[in-house]
Every structure is written in structure tokens, then in C-alpha cells.
Amino acid sequence: MDVVTMLSQLGKGMLTTGEIFILTLLFSLPLGLVLSFGRMAKNGVLRTVTKLYISVMRGTPLMLQLLVVYFAPFYLFGMKISSSYRIVAVIIGFVLNYAAYFAEIYRAGIESIPVGQYEAAKILGYSKGKTFFRIILPQVIKRILPPVTNEVITLVKDTSLAFVLAVTEMFTIAKQIAAAEKSMLAFVAAGIFYYVFNLLVAFVMEKIEKKLSYYR
């Protein structure tokens, strides 16, 4: 196999990797915020359930979670699993896992805001919703960007775990090419792809962080 053909195949795998990456962020970031509210809720039952969920998702391997999401419909409900469900199961597994990590990041950011800001907003006549979204959340976003960036970079690399459900993302294709050609070149090319992807992510996040900085 020539280099152009190999890069073309890896590029197709990269599209699947990008799809997993984008959809995971699209759904896990807002879900993480919702979970953080549950984690800080005054209701003891809701707080305990949310805390347990976060603990389980952070304390068990993502690969195991992907397998559970994929096989659960069959073992629990006897449903037939189609091949098209593979990518869906990967997205669901990634979203549920990363939402738990983002929830703890959100919680730490929200709890770092001085209570006085809530009290001042209440005196000025702000509702709880306006106080959070107009005063608290912008500050939280600025404070949590560094840890969020770390998780996003980890997500880029974790997309390779989709191979466990036979989803043909870039790492899976690199393994297939390496096995067929008996060469490490495909792995080297895949490594470069991941590295450049992470550089791009880090660059974008750094730009966002600078834009939100209070000091120029």
C-alpha cells in the first residue's frame, strides 16, 4: 500500500474520530452542568444518587462502560443489536463518562465563587436564574477552562477506545493497515494525526482562555 492510500484511509477514520469527539463534547458539557446541580442539591436523595453516579463513572474503566452500554439492551431487554448501534453506543458511553468528569469540574468552579456575590445580586433584585447565568456562570467558565482543556485533550486520545465495539475510527484503521502491511508506518501516521489534533484543540482553548481573561 502506498503512502497516499494509507493516509486517505486514515483520514476517513479521522472523520469518525472527529464525530465521536464533537458529539461527546456537544452533549457531555451541558449534561455535566445538570449533574453538578444535582451534586450540590439540597435534596439529600438527589445529591446521593448524583454523587454515586459520578463515583461509578469515574471509578470504572471507560472501555467497560462502552461494553455495558452496547450489550445492555440485549441482556436486559432481549433486544437485537444492530451494527448501526455501535457508533450510537460509543457516543452514549463517552457522553455518560465525560459528563461525570465535567460535573465535578463545574461543581468546583461554582463553589469557588464567593457567597457574597449571590447576596449582592439578590439585593439588586436579580432572580436566582439571572444571578447564575449572568454573574456566576461567566466567572465559572473562566476558572474551569484549564481543567476542561485537560479533559478535552484526554478525550481526543480516548476516542481510540471505540475499537472495542469495532467502530472503525482512526486507531482501528491504523491497526488493520499495520497488520496487513506488517509495518509501523500506519501507527506513526496515526500518532501524528492525534498529536496535531491535540495541538489544534490546545490552541483553540488557549484563544478562548485569553479572550475571557480580565487582563489584557
Write the layout of secondary structure elements.
Layout: H1 3-39, H2 44-59, H3 62-77, H4 85-111, H5 115-123, H6 128-158, H7 170-181, H8 185-212
Helix pairs in contact: 1-2, 1-4, 1-7, 1-8, 2-4, 3-4, 4-6, 5-6, 6-8, 7-8
Q: How would you describe this protein?
A:
This protein is mainly α and 216 residues long. It has one domain (3-212): MetI-like fold, CATH 1.10.3720.10. It contains eight helices and no strands. The chain has helices at 3-39, 44-59, 62-77, 85-111, 115-123, 128-158, 170-181, 185-212. Helix 1 runs antiparallel to helix 7 (170-181) and helix 1 (3-39) packs across helix 8 (185-212). The longest helix is centred in the N-terminal third of the chain and has 37 residues, at 3-39. It is flat and about 70 Å long.
Supply database-style keywords.
mainly alpha, single chain
- Enumerate the spans where pLDDT stays under 50 for 5 or more consecutive residues: none
Largest sheet: none
N-to-C CA distance? 51 Å
Pattern of helices and strands: HHHHHHHH
CATH topology: MetI-like fold
CATH A-level architecture: Orthogonal Bundle
Number of E-state strands:
0
Q: Decide which structural class fits the backbone.
A: mainly alpha
Which term fits the overall shape? Answer: flat
Approximate helicity band: over 70%
Number of helices: 8
Radius of gyration: 21 Å
CATH H-tier superfamily: MetI-like
CATH class: Mainly Alpha
> Per DSSP, what share of the residues sits in E-state strands of 2 or more residues?
under 5%
How many domains comprise the coordinates? Answer: 1
Question: What's the overall average pLDDT, rounded?
Answer: 89
